[in-house]
Design a protein that fits this description.
Two copies of one chain form a homodimer. Chain A is 32% helix and 21% strand. Chain A is α/β, with parallel strands linked by helices. Chain A has two domains: 130 residues, Lyase, Ornithine Decarboxylase, Chain A, domain 1; 226 residues, Alanine racemase (TIM Barrel, Alpha-Beta Barrel). In chain A, the strands form two sheets. In chain A, strands 1, 10, 11, 12, 13, 14, 15, 16 and 17 form a nine-stranded mixed beta sheet that branches. In chain A, strand 4, helix 5 and strand 5 form a beta-alpha-beta unit. The first copy, chain A, is globular and about 70 Å long. At the A-B interface, helix 5 and strand 10 of A face helix 5 and strand 10 of B.
Chain lengths: 376, 376
């Protein structure tokens, strides 16, 4: 792989982070490990299973570290992501998005054959019938719409119907329920987020009661995110957490109070290192990271280091950005490295082929992002 | 490569576009060829050299088609893009962004050694001196800032100084001037755009006069974009066009009047095919293309086909989007394909590993995007 070839000679060389070709996606291994340990301890303490979402990192190396620490497996957003991580030896995968169409049904059946621990969310009888017809062993979880109308069955009656169809199919296993409150994760204050999640969880409880009454008590109730994990644990309805962003954090989540307490439970572990490639103006310099190097739907990337305190970033097209120091302060010089945090981690990671794993400024590894671009 | 393996069996099968795994990046080969022919004819008619920008497509197959039609080579935005297209056999590459830093200097020297037709833009004496010290033959063009302060020397005096240094270095060749009016390309009306470009071109003419007076008359004056190509030709100062987006068009350029005439000179050739993966609500359906499948800084992707006239798209997170039909009209059904145009082509292409080349609904080829992600 291109990135590995290019940077392999820097591995273990002191201070080698500064010598990386830029823009470079960088993961601080110590911070990542502390985030993994903190969430694992939290899940253990609260009695929840942990199945972190791999859509955030798309990397077998990070999935292995999460599982080694105690996760029961990982979630994948797409079939292609699950194929890539299965190829890389990851087990215990839950595909969280429903699939549809003949070719996807065929691929899911094929993947289930070689990945006996695979499970998948489903929200429509047609897909259950198609997989039942394929006669491949697979565990299906009923995806319940939390009101966002993105995916999931629309009500308790539809959940009962779908669970019944799964349970009735000889090759299929009814694995439980998925309930992911996506739009609530980034509500800024803990109190407002708690109110919103509690209201949605009351609805989920009603659905679970209906399933129970139908003799379809779900063995697993999976959902939750980094923004809601403490609330989900406290409410006690979910049995499994699908948290993703906690491993990296990003500006979106850094702006949220995740704990209702003063100290944030996770720290920034994901960075983009850029370099000043044009410096002909006193008020700004141009770095080599633009629209193709950051998620762009969540604001600008925060400047972390390499530029004077208070410097800001502005997108300057596809390939570059401006770093603007506070008035009267000199900008960084030509060739200097400026480091950013990600505005939103998932779509930022999806732009790169590999992580540069660093400890104290030294490159310690290059981790391929096996599922990058695997949206199909 | 993954995408090729997956879809190779569909090549040449009638109607096979509908069987692609989604989301899929699709190029309409006939429309692409018409766009290439139209721009080549325009350049020939106006006596301009054509060096289309490969940052738009990042593909050797498309670069080859542009060169076969008459282009003198292609532009690359980054060193990594130029390395990837050189590896794929493309010649006549101009790297349009300045580079900086020891490792980039080393890579540029190495690339110049194996690509004798390589040329690069430069805007700082340090980089000229570093390449001069490497004693590798390379043609440098002086990048002149059109006022955006993104890249380029700040004034005529700096242009003269830099050109003189290039001309004085034994291994280097002074190749001329680059002047790219990035911020003017998307001004909506032709008249306003013309006024802005004419004003900037008057400044460029002053710089060229100063170079001429210093005995540094530039052999090439390269610049221009899809938005300004007719204006640039009319003003007659540029000798070479760097147009990129004309091959695909996108919503951004579809909203611009490119010709001052009624008929748009180029047509949409780039699409994203998605599939309905959840359909449990009467008012909207969910397709499998979200933030990871489209550029997100240029608005929402327009619905092209597969949904009722007047349907709109809304992003629903990283992995999905909503397709919303007009009030009272039924949305597409589960498993159906919905096709979108790109909001902005360059960063959309940068998310995919390959193009699915189609003619009349039949897959005729899979074209790898060799320079995808090569921002470093």
């Amino acid at each position: 792989m291109y990135v590995e070839d290019l940077h392999a000679h820097l591995i273990g060389r002191q201070g080698s982070r500064a010598a990386l070709n830029t823009p470079a996606l960088v993961v601080d291994v110590d911070a990542l490990e502390r985030n993994i340990a903190a969430m694992t301890a939290f899940a253990r303490r609260t009695g929840l299973a942990l199945r972190p979402h791999a859509k955030t990192h798309k990397s077998a190396e990070i999935a292995r570290r999460q599982i080694a620490a105690g996760a029961v497996g990982v979630c994948c957003a797409k079939l292609g992501e699950a194929e890539a991580l299965t190829d890389a030896g990851i087990e215990g995968i839950l595909i969280t998005s429903p699939i549809a169409g003949a070719s996807a049904v065929e691929r899911l059946a094929k993947l289930a054959t070689r990945a006996p621990t695979l499970r998948a969310a489903v929200d429509h009888p047609d897909v259950v019938e198609a997989l039942a017809a394929a006669a491949v062993p697979l565990t299906f979880l009923v995806d319940v719409d939390p009101g966002l109308h993105r995916t999931g069955v629309a009500d308790a009656a539809a959940a009962v119907d779908l669970a019944r169809r799964i349970a009735a199919a000889p090759s299929l296993t009814y694995g439980g329920v998925q309930f992911y409150c996506g739009s609530q994760q980034h509500i800024e204050t803990y109190a407002d987020r708690r109110t919103a999640i509690a209201e949605r969880t009351a609805y989920l409880s009603d659905v679970l009661t209906r399933l129970d009454e139908a003799g379809l008590n779900p063995p697993v109730v999976t959902g939750g995110g980094t923004g809601s994990h403490r609330i989900d644990a406290e409410l006690g309805v979910l049995t499994e957490l699908q948290v993703g962003s906690y491993i990296f954090m990003d500006r979106q989540y850094a702006d949220c109070d995740l704990s209702g307490e003063e100290r944030a439970p996770f720290e920034t572990a994901l960075f983009v290192d850029s370099r000043v490639i044009s410096a002909n103006h006193p008020m700004l310099v141009t770095v080599d990271a633009g629209l193709k190097c950051f998620a762009t739907e969540a604001g600008v990337p925060p400047v972390v280091s390499g530029a004077p305190e208070g410097s800001t970033y502005r997108f300057m097209g596809d390939e570059q950005g401006a770093v603007i120091p506070p008035k009267g302060v000199a900008p960084p010089r030509l060739g200097e490295v400026v480091t950013f945090a990600a505005p939103h981690c998932d779509p930022t990671v999806n732009l790169y082929d590999a992580y540069h794993a660093v400890k104290d400024g030294t490159l310690v590894g290059i981790w391929p992002i096996e599922a990058r671009g695997r949206s199909a």
